[in-house]
Design brief:
The structure holds two protein chains of two kinds. By secondary structure, chain A is mainly β. Helix content of chain A is 0%, strand content 54%. Chain B is built from no helices and eleven strands. In chain B, strand 5 and strand 6 form a beta hairpin. The relative contact order of chain B is 0.33.
Chain lengths: 111, 115
């Protein structure tokens, strides 16, 4: 079936570095994408979303890029902090369907 | 506090036992969902509901049942627990099934172990 996947299961960075977390999706009909952050023992928390009619969207310290040509999604975190350490999931959906989640990337930030 | 409340937080079941995972939301969301998360994996959709009295199967519905008698509550029932159902279960709700500025609101999860 259709699924959303992430390129790397783990990413380790130094505090202050910029982090880039990638995601490849397979359903070309998906038109809405969300990045979630999940800390240990907690449920996923919304970070940022993007619709398919956009290529880029910026939030506070985070930017999501969407490349529909190659069905690729990325999350950029500027000046990564220890509090950013968590598992990051991308999720996709199309009109009328529930979110489908990828496997997740574990981000580890060292001081 | 407004949000999604799940109970219990932890539970150990013996094979063949049954239990109900409770989920309640106070945001007046029409849409509610149950996901399971296996270690190191993403969330898989079990069941979802688009409103009171309406439920639909997700990716992995086998071994589970749901009901939606009110807008607020969406319990998940395991009738004959199996070790393959050992997982963390998340309930979520949303204003829209596929739209919405904030996506889904998730509960804190129920960690279930079947032995």
């Amino acid at each position: 079936g259709e699924s959303v996947g992430l390129h790397l299961p783990t990413l380790s960075v130094q505090e202050g570095d910029n982090s880039i977390i990638n995601c490849a999706y397979s359903n070309s009909a998906s038109d809405y994408f969300i990045w979630y952050k999940q800390e240990s023992g907690k449920g996923p928390q919304f970070i940022i979303d993007i619709r398919s009619n956009m290529d880029k969207r910026q939030g506070q310290r985070v930017t999501v890029l969407l490349n529909k040509t190659v069905k690729h999604l990325s999350l950029q975190i500027a000046a990564t902090q220890p509090g950013d350490s968590a598992v990051y999931f991308c999720a996709e959906t199309q009109a009328g369907t529930a979110l489908i989640f990828g496997k997740g990337t574990t981000l580890s930030v060292s001081s | 506090n407004a949000g999604v409340t799940q109970t219990p937080k932890f539970r150990i079941l013996k094979i063949g036992q049954s239990m109900t995972l409770q989920c309640a939301q106070d945001m007046n969301h029409n849409y509610m969902y149950w996901y399971r998360q296996d270690p190191g994996m993403g969330l898989k959709l079990i069941y979802y509901s688009v409103g009171a009295g309406i439920t639909d199967k997700g990716e992995v519905p086998n071994g589970y049942n749901v009901s939606r008698s009110t807008t607020e509550d969406f319990p998940l029932r395991l009738e004959l627990a199996a070790p393959s159902q050992t997982s963390v279960y998340f309930c979520a709700s949303s204003y829209s099934i596929s739209r919405g500025a904030d996506g889904y609101t998730f509960g804190s999860g129920t960690r279930l172990t079947v032995v």
